[in-house]
Amino acid sequence: MDSRLAKRHKRQVARAKDKVKISEPDLRTPEEIKAAREASRPAGGRISGTSVHTANPSSRNSTAPGTGSAAKTAI
Q1: Count of CB atoms within 10 A of residue 40's CB?
Q2: Are the C-beta atoms of 33 and 26 separated by less than 8 Å?
């Protein structure tokens, strides 16, 4: 039974090696690569409004006044 599993594993490995797709090298010159990068960049440069530091902080974790867990009063 162990030899059967070993043969099965060997077949699976051989099939997996056949399916591996090897990436082709980039045959463009450095100038062509640079030109392609320049062409793919947005025309306006940075998009406004995507700054990390915003004027108003995120209200995701903040609670409205009076709705949070306020101190309990004894009755």
Answers
A1: 7
A2: yes
